[in-house]
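Suppose a colleague, Dr. K., hands you the sequence of a protein chain of 61 amino acids and asks what its three-dimensional shape might be. Before reaching for any lab equipment, you can write down a predicted structure in token form. Begin with the sequence itself:
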Amino acid sequence: MSRVLVIATGGTIASTPERDGLAPTLTGRELAERVPLLDTLCELDFVQPMNIDSTNMRPRD
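The predicted structure, expressed as tokens, is then:
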């Protein structure tokens, strides 16, 4: 079975509604859990170096 590394950094796809709008709250693992049968196609590894909104991402990130 293939192995896939998921590198999660936040952004719109990882956001959920918060009091002041959207905020990145989901981890890479939580995102993968929302894809039906994904775990039957490959083995997943996860790295989460940051969890920030893409509009706040800067070159140092």
